Write a sequence for this structure.
């Protein structure tokens, strides 16, 4: 028997208590590059869900960063807070300043001068104008969406509304391979579509 400390990926996939769908670890990793996340950055996530992205972002932004988590459903906040506290009890608190705000992000965003804003909500197009005001010039808007109709609606709005440039849509497919003596082949099953990551940069008007 081999006993190893679970990784962040292990925790999210096997221990996190889910009351919502989550952003898959392979896609969370892409947030670092697409959002140009750095320690000390100011980040807002709209839609706390079960806290998977929250835990990931708190670790990325440590020790001097700020994460503001917005959610309109109190039961989601309660579960996400429990998951964050459980993770910190096992791995330690990275020290990132964390604020949780119960709010409808379609009506208001409680921050400004943000480096990155992550919209993990069903209708992100309803928050685009608010996001532009909340981001600093050059800041990055990220949106995580599962369906092509949602992507089309958001991207077309970003393309037509002044103030957004470098608009990109990406999907990550992940496939493991099995290696044995004199044999190597891909696994029969793979983690294919989990969602689309849309990125746009906020520019001054």
């Amino acid at each position: 028997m081999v006993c190893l400390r679970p990784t962040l990926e292990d925790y999210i996939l096997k221990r996190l208590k889910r009351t919502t769908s989550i952003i898959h670890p392979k896609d969370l990793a892409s947030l670092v590059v697409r959002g140009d996340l750095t320690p000390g950055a100011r980040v807002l996530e709209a839609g706390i869900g079960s806290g998977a992205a929250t835990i990931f972002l708190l670790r990325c932004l440590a020790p001097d960063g700020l994460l503001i988590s917005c959610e309109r459903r109190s039961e989601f906040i309660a579960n996400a807070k429990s998951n964050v506290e459980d993770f910190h009890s096992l791995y330690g608190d990275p020290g990132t300043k964390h604020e949780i705000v119960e709010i409808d992000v379609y009506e208001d965003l409680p921050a400004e001068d943000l480096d990155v804003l992550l919209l993990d909500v069903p209708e992100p197009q309803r928050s685009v104008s608010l996001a532009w005001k909340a981001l600093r010039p050059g800041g990055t808007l990220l949106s995580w969406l599962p369906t092509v109709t949602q992507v089309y609606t958001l991207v077309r709005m970003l393309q037509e509304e002044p103030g957004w440039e470098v608009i990109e849509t990406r999907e990550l497919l992940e496939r493991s391979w099995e290696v044995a003596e004199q044999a190597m082949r891909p696994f029969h099953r793979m983690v294919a579509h989990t969602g689309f990551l849309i990125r746009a940069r906020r520019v001054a008007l």
Notes: Helices lie at 8-14, 25-34, 52-61, 74-91, 128-134, 148-160.
